[in-house]
Amino acid sequence: MFVVGREQQQVFAHRCVLACRCQAFRGMLGQAPVGSQDSSSSVPPQGPFILGNVQPEVFLAVIEFLYTNSVTLNSHIALEVLTSSVEYGLQDLCKLCVKFIKDTLSVEQVCEALQVRVTLEGSPRVKNNL
């Protein structure tokens, strides 16, 4: 279980799905990689995991992607989902966000999109996706 955002919304997800699909969650959830020698002896930490700096709608989009390999985006969350995709090392989600942003970018969002790009450009996880 995750407790997300200032609203402290509870989000439930399967530990095995998150750990299999995302290295960052694998580390957060304390699971050793499949086939490793410590996988049977390590005891993963129990939740809830507190994520106070992420909007619930953004976190739910990341979870949706991890479960379905697709995501439902809107202009209100796309840039934040992009930021989360970089944080969690989810390159395919990053590409989906960039495509959505390119296809729907409006004059009102240009400054915010530019600021996100500048911020993420220095990230070692961002290659040529932006």
Automatic annotation (TrEMBL):
CDD domains: BTB_POZ_BTBD19
Name of this protein: BTBDJ protein
Source organism superkingdom: Eukaryota
PANTHER family noted in UniProt: BTB/POZ DOMAIN-CONTAINING PROTEIN 19, BTB_POZ DOMAIN-CONTAINING PROTEIN 19
Ranges where the BTB domain occurs: 1-75
Pfam family, one: BTB
SUPFAM superfamilies attached to this UniProt entry: POZ domain (SSF54695)
Biological source species: Chaetorhynchus papuensis
InterPro entries: BTB/POZ_dom, BTBD19, SKP1/BTB/POZ_sf
